[in-house]
């Protein structure tokens, strides 16, 4: 019934002027006050738009033809950009991308955290925002008897079948995926089929360490057996003799989660090394590792600056992964405690401490929201806490533990501004004051944005 109120009809073609941009990167235009969201539309532009969805309060459209283009519009270098679901911002200038991301952060600081006056600095961007990723993770499909590798089309699980390169991945990773695809096709290895839950090869993952040139190939299979394994390894290592590690990961489940729990090293080492600044890190297949090495340095430097740790300080690094931030903190602190849920990552963190001659860092496997209250009960009162949670943000029990521990400072590293703002509100109510927020562009060309924020405890 309510749909009848909308001033547009499905499949109708309209002329729209875009006034605004959503944080997903969609242009927003209005017809009689009714907002229509259109991917690839830019503010100031006038365009013909086909209405494709009509909801009660807003609709969606498809850009047909631009009548008046924005000066910020650029030609996307990627051939499959308009089909692929990977990037959302290649059609806008890099300056506009950074401005949009800063506005998104400002917006949630006001609307979600109710922090009207907190400084949100201009986004720290990349000099060259292309080919920055150190990890390519790509689904495998089949077409006309050939394996194909490509990202999913927007809002679907259809693999783009004509993607030959991804311009945000580093070139070596890109080429290694192509080598696996070609060799596996020649050997007759089948692709996994989501619909029937049959076939073998699900994903190809390549990690390249920019600091050491180590590479790791991970072949995710549905089956325990990897057909033609010996021949596949032979041909791959002939093509890339410097390969350090080839891993088979078995994922038998009907799931969108890419990797299964079981990994088997089928060639070389079961890890690679990377270096950031003066520290070296061992990385296992299932351990988290930042995907943009250039900006990781920028992010970590900012986090360390905000943490401002001195030789008498005790520090907690929650959601510590393989201990990257922890070990930089440990170089300055009296003692650092790290907590992380993935056991392999904690094994890596312990080895990484040894590898770098660091003896004042202690790592614990567990859910941060359980371990932090336990530490509080043990009487641990850190001077500084660093948190770097996944997209869903911090658990309430963890936020409460931070409030109970009452550190001088909290540094909150976040890959999701909405959950960051939600959690800042809780910490503010618990006696902390947000000093500043620094967005960092870790995911150029996409609509994701990373932030580091500094909170101080209010002195009573
Ligand atoms: N600070 C690290 C890792 C950040 S990513 C770095 O910069 O590399 C977030 C990490 O949190 C991941 O390693 C993930 O495995 C871990 N994690 C997710 N949920 C968790 C939980 N409930 N408790 C502890 N760690 C968790």
Brief summary of the model shown:
The chain is α/β, with parallel strands linked by helices.
Could you characterize the architecture of this molecule?
- The chain is globular.
- The strands form four sheets. The chain has a seven-stranded mixed beta sheet with strand order 16-15-14-17-18-20-19, with helices on both faces. A six-stranded mixed beta sheet has the order 7-6-8-9-10-11, covered by helices on one side. A five-stranded mixed barrel has the order 1-2-3-5-4.
- 25% of the residues lie in helices and 29% in strands.
- The protein folds into three domains: 72 residues, Nucleic acid-binding proteins (OB fold (Dihydrolipoamide Acetyltransferase, E2P)); 192 residues, Vaccinia Virus protein VP39 (Rossmann fold, 3-Layer(aba) Sandwich), CATH 3.40.50.150; 142 residues, Beta Barrel (OB fold (Dihydrolipoamide Acetyltransferase, E2P)), CATH 2.40.50.1070.
- Strand 14, helix 5 and strand 15 form a beta-alpha-beta unit.
- It has nine helices and 20 strands.
- With 460 residues, it is of the alpha/beta class.
- The model has no long low-confidence stretch (mean pLDDT 96).
- Helix 2 packs antiparallel against helix 3 and helix 7 runs parallel beside helix 8.
- S-adenosyl-L-homocysteine binds next to helix 5, strand 15 and helix 7.
């Amino acid at each position: 019934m309510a749909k009848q109120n909308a001033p547009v009809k499905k499949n109708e073609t309209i002329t729209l002027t875009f006034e605004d941009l959503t944080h997903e990167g969609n242009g927003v235009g209005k017809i009689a006050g009714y907002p229509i969201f259109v991917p690839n539309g830019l503010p100031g532009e006038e365009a013909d738009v086909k209405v494709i969805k009509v909801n009660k309060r807003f609709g969606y459209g498809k850009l047909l033809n631009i009548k008046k283009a924005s000066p910020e519009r650029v030609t996307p270098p990627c051939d499959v950009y308009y089909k692929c679901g990977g990037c959302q911002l290649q059609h806008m200038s890099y300056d506009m991308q950074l401005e949009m991301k800063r506005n998104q952060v400002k917006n949630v600081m006001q609307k979600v955290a109710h922090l009207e006056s907190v400084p949100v600095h201009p986004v720290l961007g990349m000099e060259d925002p292309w080919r920055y990723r150190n990890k390519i993770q790509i689904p495998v499909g089949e077409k006309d008897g050939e394996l194909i590798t490509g990202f999913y089309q927007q809002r679907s699980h259809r693999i783009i079948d004509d993607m030959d390169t991804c311009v945000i991945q580093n070139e070596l990773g890109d080429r290694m995926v192509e080598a696996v695809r070609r060799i596996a096709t020649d050997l007759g290895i089948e692709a996994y089929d989501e619909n029937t839950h049959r076939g073998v090869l699900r994903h190809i993952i390549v990690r390249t360490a920019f600091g050491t040139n180590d590479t790791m190939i991970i072949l995710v299979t549905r089956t325990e057996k990897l057909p033609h394994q010996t021949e596949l390894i032979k041909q791959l290592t002939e093509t890339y003799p410097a390969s350090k590690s080839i891993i088979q990961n078995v994922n038998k489940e009907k799931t969108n989660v890419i990797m299964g729990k079981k990994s088997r090293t089928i060639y070389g080492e079961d890890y690679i090394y990377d270096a950031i600044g003066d520290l070296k890190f061992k990385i296992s297949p299932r351990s988290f590792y930042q995907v943009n090495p250039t900006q990781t340095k920028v992010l970590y430097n900012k986090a360390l600056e905000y943490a401002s740790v001195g030789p008498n300080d005790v520090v907690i690094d929650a959601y510590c992964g393989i201990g990257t931030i922890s070990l930089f903190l440990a170089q300055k602190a009296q003692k650092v405690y790290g907590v992380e849920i993935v056991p392999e990552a904690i094994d890596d963190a312990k080895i990484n401490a040894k590898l770098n001659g660091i003896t004042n860092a202690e790592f614990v496997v567990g859910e941060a929201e359980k371990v932090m209250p336990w530490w509080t009960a043990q009487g641990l009162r850190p001077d500084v806490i660093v948190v770097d949670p996944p997209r869903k943000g911090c658990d309430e029990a963890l936020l409460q533990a931070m409030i109970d521990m009452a550190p001088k400072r909290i540094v909150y590293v976040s890959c999701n501004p909405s959950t960051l703002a939600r959690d800042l509100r809780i910490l503010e109510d618990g006696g902390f004051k947000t000093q500043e927020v620094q967005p960092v562009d870790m995911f150029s060309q996409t609509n994701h944005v990373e932030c580091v924020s500094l909170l101080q405890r209010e002195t009573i």
